[in-house]
């Protein structure tokens, strides 16, 4: 039997279990067309409808991609006319909702002919037959239908169909239809029992006949006429046996007959199995409901809601079924929490005199008080020594990403910002509070992000609704089906090709630091003027700390992902000769080493399996990796540069629980991964040449990496990141001399490296970066995504004291940012590195 081509675009029909209802006197209604979920078809395997697919259907509908109106017909027979016209589409939670304008034909089908279910028709990737452009999932229409052809109790069944596309039935509808079929069957079974009981038959015979009827009726589903005819046949059998005046031995459609006692045993076992299944489903649902309640209780930003409003949000737990996964429950809670946050924000705005309709969002505009407050603060800071010494940037304008982050901060702190703006406008400087002014916090965010130059190399997004995860979009080119150089002869199929939009899941993590700030910053001032110099000093140090943390995370993830793109696993490497009591580290035979990666959620729970893991067996005992959480005395291993390790040079260091070096003895065996996605350059100057001439080789190594990226990954490198030290070493190449500078290689007006081989260069401006002074990472901008779910925000501050418990005139403020830094695995090969190292020094 020929295997269907899974790559061929097909129309998919998904039967939903939500009834279509019309109100009297109205010809317009809103109905759920489909919803997210996983479905399986025996011919095509597993199908999944995601929220991103629903959003694509809405986007294509609003843009008129289909090139015609979208209609609902009856029984998927558009030639019979339209039952309704789709006038609007939207995504609500996990459902695709449609506004339907009904025709008399559709009203008659719903009210008089019993069509109560919608079966959606869509294509997973619609291609315009004129332009050839692919647009992703698109809704073609929907059909009113009576019921699917369910023959078994499988969670997903196929409906009767007339084309080659799969018809998928949602599990909730399967359950509903199964219950309807069982009710119909039980109705006829009770009528049969009543008729048999009026005959001269013993109870065992009656039970046997009824049980036989029920087993035979399972195959008829909701076939009312068939069930009735089957019941009449059993009545005739009972009448014939009653006339014979003997007990009935019922035989089912099995090789051997079953006695009445065996039938009762089978029924008892069936009831026990049903009760067990029901109990397991109830326990599973209780677990899902418990998770939902826990997430709602821990949600931030809902404290300002009334009790009845919080109860209203929590009523969504009624939608939870045992079949829902934990991720689906989390998404449901996320939607409810988002609605609650918007309601709380609207209430705050109302208390400030702002009136909003619909989904209210605070934006910084030229006219509002928040914008004026920000300008006043920056005006004051520009008169400080920190700004004069260029420690503060205070740019007039910031990029769209920083604007989006500040907009989210303004939404959360709208009331406090409004009050501080009023205070400054009226000449007040003492607010009477003891907490960090939100206008100060806002400028720390603005300053740290606007001076984070590495952001120019990454894709930056905001996702205010994200809780534990966020979705990162990326594109992949698929030319795998193109044959014969793209030549297609007459009447042959035309293969699809183009750019495909995909999503990758990234985990949102919290970056948290506590900082000391002076009382002059915590209070606007207790005198007549604000101490702007105190503000500037603290703002410069705090913004730099936040900037360096994020910068290091971005650079380290760039390097790790680039290394993981072409890693080779090594097992059982014996380095015992290096463990002689004098060395605090061992060197791997192969390098650079790929830093291990383990996905975790923001609560520290491990997700999935570790990638590129390292195992260090010292004297046949596996060592634990060192971290700040280690407290137990012992020996640990680390790759951190400041503790003696190095991913670039393959140094695995030994430290104790305090991070101090350890020099062990004995045997040592390693399991690790090293990368081949690298161009190596030995910095040692050979005899007979000059340092400047030799450094031309580093320029050539960068050119080789750029060429390999283009050949292997089909991308053009448009950024490279390296340390200031390596940046300076590269500029010493002879090619950068004033009289020998080559096209594509240049320095800026300060003498720093501007680019090599036409690839712009950025320097790392944060300590503790894995790149060190040896590595250059280069690639296509936007490969790494930095998504902010919650911008830097500070909690309540508290008084700082010295070692003797005396106050120091400072307060400690605790700050945190929730963000995701992620490179989808499928595009890690869009980055490559150069390693500039000393072979003799290693």
Describe what this molecule looks like in 3D.
There is one protein chain. The protein has 842 residues and is an alpha+beta fold. Among the domains are: 12-169, no CATH class; 178-258, no CATH class; 274-351, no CATH class; 567-675, no CATH class. Helix content is 33%, strand content 23%. Strand 3 and strand 4 (45-49) form a beta hairpin. The longest helix has 39 residues, at 260-298. The chain is globular, with a radius of gyration of 35 Å.
Shape: globular
- Tally of alpha and pi helices: 17
Low-confidence segments, ≥5 residues, pLDDT <50? 1-10, 17-21, 148-174, 246-258, 351-367, 429-434, 524-528, 738-743, 747-752
Overall average residue pLDDT: 77
Distance between the termini: 61 Å
Q: How do the strands line up in the largest sheet?
A: 2-7-6-5-9-8-1-10
Which radius of gyration do the C-alpha atoms yield? 35 Å
* Percentage of residues assigned to helices: 25-40%
Biggest sheet features: 8 strands, mixed
Blueprint of the fold:
Blueprint: E1 12-15, E2 28-35, E3 37-41, E4 45-49, H1 51-62, E5 71-74, E6 84-92, E7 95-102, H2 104-111, E8 117-123, E9 138-145, E10 167-169, H3 171-197, H4 203-217, H5 224-244, H6 260-298, H7 307-314, H8 326-351, H9 369-381, H10 385-388, H11 400-412, H12 414-425, H13 438-450, E11 459-462, E12 469-478, E13 498-507, E14 509-518, H14 519-522, H15 532-564, E15 567-574, E16 585-587, E17 615-618, E18 621-622, E19 624-625, E20 636-638, E21 651-655, E22 668-675, E23 678-682, H16 691-713, E24 719-722, H17 724-731, E25 746-747, E26 753-756, E27 759-763, E28 775-779, E29 785-794, E30 798-801, E31 807-822, E32 831-837
Parallel strand pairs: 1-10, 5-9, 11-29, 19-20, 23-32, 24-27
Antiparallel strand pairs: 1-8, 2-7, 3-4, 5-6, 6-7, 8-9, 12-13, 14-31, 15-22, 16-21, 17-18, 17-22, 20-21, 24-28, 25-26, 26-27, 28-32, 29-31, 30-31
Helix pairs in contact: 3-4, 3-5, 4-5, 4-6, 6-8, 7-8, 9-12, 9-13, 11-13, 13-15
